[in-house]
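Methods — Computational structure assignment.
A single polypeptide chain was analysed. Its primary sequence is given first, followed by the predicted tertiary structure written as structure tokens.
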Amino acid sequence: MKYLIALMFLFIFNVSTASENSIFGLWKTQDQRAKVKISSCPTNAEELCGIIVELRDPFDPETGEDKTDKLNSDPVLKNRKLLGLMNLTGFKTASQDPRHWTDGKIYSPREGETYSCEMSLIEPNTLEVRGYIGLPIFGKTQTWTRTTTDEKLQSFPDAE
């Protein structure tokens, strides 16, 4: 019986620790324009991917239709909807730090560009996302915050 109780305690402790260190879930971007769901990639469960699941402003003000990837340089992709777009791909856990992911790509619909990217889970609800060209030193870091489906994205006039 003692063995069973000890085993249950270890299982509960490991589950809570894993969830605190998990990058999986829903994240709002620094400018709160979008929520991105991070999970295992559909084609490779060893890698992480992210999909845009909510937009603060989902409709194009010019057309009234769903926003599309109109800034993409590839004409074939210009008409794909932003909602449901996979904008994070190919992240691998860094061997030296299980709270850091490297070798990924981030796609910015606001620029129509794809950048190399790495992510670090700073706290259970704080994720640093660094997009860069070439070397990480030539990049920009955003802080994303864990969120829920119920939490609304806010508009900040200075961040527009």
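Note: Residues 100 and 120 are 4 Å apart (CA to CA).
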